[in-house]
Amino acid sequence: MQRLSSNLSGKRKVVKRGVVRAKQGRSGRLLLWVALTSLFLVYCGPPKPPPNILIYVVDTLRSDALSLEDEATSHTPHWARLSQNGVTFENAYANASWTRASMASLMTGLLPWHHSTESRLDRLPETARTLAELFAEHGYSTAIVSANPNISPVFGFEQAVEQFSPLYARSNPGIVGGHELVTPSTVVNTEAMRWFEDVQQPFFLLALAIDPHAPYAPPPEFDPGQHRKADAVADAARTPSNIDRVRERYLGEVAFNDASFGQLVDFLKQKNLWENTVVILTSDHGEAFWEYGQAGHGKSLHEEVLRVPLILHGANDRLAPGQRIQRPVSLVDLAPTLLDLAQLPIPEGLDGQNLLTPHPKPSPILAGLDLDQHRLQSAFDPPYKLVRNLKTGKQSLYRLDGPTAEAIPLDPALDPSAQEAQARLEAVLDESQNQSGRTLPKTRARRIPGRVEASLRALGYIE
Question: What angle do CA 442, 447, 451 make, to 5 degrees?
Fold first, then answer.
């Protein structure tokens, strides 16, 4: 990827003395327990309350769009600080390259072909066990704030959510170039802050901010080129200067969202919520800029649209500051990880694994796309990646550290190691496909309200 616990008179006294001794024994044990408990509280402190969970999803944020090395010079200084004080997974992947399928994987810990929420009209089945449900069952307050209509009650994401804020359903031009129905991250975070004012802890909040999703229209102070017209990716001619201009505006929206996130962090600190909150920063997918002849997302399973940032911060000793984890992980791993951090039971049958397991089992990264004419699956085990076209039956093997990366497939017949890798990755995909016991029933949205449809259209999901 390019960088971006008898005798009454004779025995009466004995009985009395026995009672007295018993009372003295109980009193002594009670005093000892009080003393030990006091010592424990003095030296260990009171038991920690359950951690709050805040998942902050930045729509369309590819991993190389962040600058995490030096906060002082970074164009994303708040995310750089979060990384420096948390655990950063350097090679994190979405399990789909468009929002609804990817977020369904994040919320259920299931791969797209298991949660069955893959295409335009698919709805998350009621039988799905989402993170919101699992946390709500253990006394958590739950909320979702979403600026993307794909994450809405229409498509099944309201399960066990006490407060669902559908910001896409408001005509809210905000400060992003006057684009109706494209809600900026400042509005998302203001809505989150409003919920935090009276929230009962512990809480679970999923906040999905739309920027930097196209159309790219950052506020003037985040737009170095001061371009007047918003750019839908497909509108720009593929000249080097135009591609640079589009990337520049995309990065302007990234920087704007980082600044909005900083305001949210300041608010949590002011409300004394920060110290006991596990914060997760990630994205639903990335964005392509013609690296392989395509722009946008939801059309391929290339690195540019699958590789995303993933930072876990705070409220747990296992999230020691400054850790950089190199092994590949994916969004299905978040469900078991967050449940473990909250010391809650992890359901059986999840596709993901706990990211904080001391010695995790190596596992290829799987992804799928079933959208419009695109029907693809991929399996990635560095350095090899297998892409399977479900429409044509064709399979292509790539070596991502090679000179052609994903541009030209390998010929496994010419390389025994490539041949072995292809056989192994084919077996992994086949095994996952054959786990029919995990597959949820396909469910369709009955009706899409007009305002939701308009927002989907504004974001390019409907022609």
Answer: 125
What is the Cα–Cα distance from 104 to 370, expressed in whole angstroms? 14
Give me the count of residues in the chain.
Answer: 463
Sequence-ordered strand ranges (E) for 171-227: 203-209
CB 181 within 8 A of CB 149: no
Work out the burial of residue 437: count CB atoms within 10 Å of its CB; fewer than 13 is exposed, 13-18 middle, 19 or more buried.
Answer: exposed
Alpha helices in 45-118 (DSSP H): 77-84, 99-108, 112-115
How many angstroms separate the CA atoms of 456 and 463, rounded?
Answer: 9
How many other C-beta atoms are found inside a 10 Å radius of the C-beta of residue 119? Answer: 18
* Residues 12-23: tens digit of each pLDDT: 333 333 333 333
**Token pair in block for residue 275:** 């110290």
Low pLDDT (below 70) residues in the chain: 1-46, 169-181, 225-238, 463
Q: List residues bridging with 395 in a β-sheet.
A: 388
Give the whole-angstrom CA distance, residue 247 versus residue 258: 16
What number of other Cβ atoms are within 10 A of residue 412's Cβ?
18
Which DSSP category does 109 fall into? S
Strand-strand pairing, 87-89 and 310-313:
antiparallel
Structural fold of domain 52-363+445-458: Alkaline Phosphatase, subunit A (3.40.720)
State the alpha helices, DSSP H only, in 366-461. 416-433, 450-458
Q: Could you tell me which of 351, 366, 375 has the C-alpha nearest to residue 425? A: 366
Any idea where the domains of the chain sit in the sequence? 52-363+445-458, 374-433
**C-alpha to C-alpha distance for 149 and 156, rounded to whole angstroms:** 11
Tell me the per-residue pLDDT of 409-451, one tens digit each, with 9 for 90 and over: 999 999 999 999 999 999 999 999 888 778 998 988 878 887 7
Tell me the two tokens of residue 156.
Answer: 């099944």
Count the helices and strands in the chain (H runs, E runs).
Answer: 11, 17
Per DSSP, 414 falls in state G
Q: What ranges in 271-359 are assigned the alpha helix state H?
A: 303-306, 334-341
Query: What does the pLDDT read at residue 179?
Result: 43
For position 224, what pLDDT does the model report? 73
Report which of 46, 47, 50, 48 is spatially closest to residue 138, judged by C-alpha positions.
50
**Cα–Cα dist 114/150, whole Å:** 18
This prediction has a pTM of 0.86
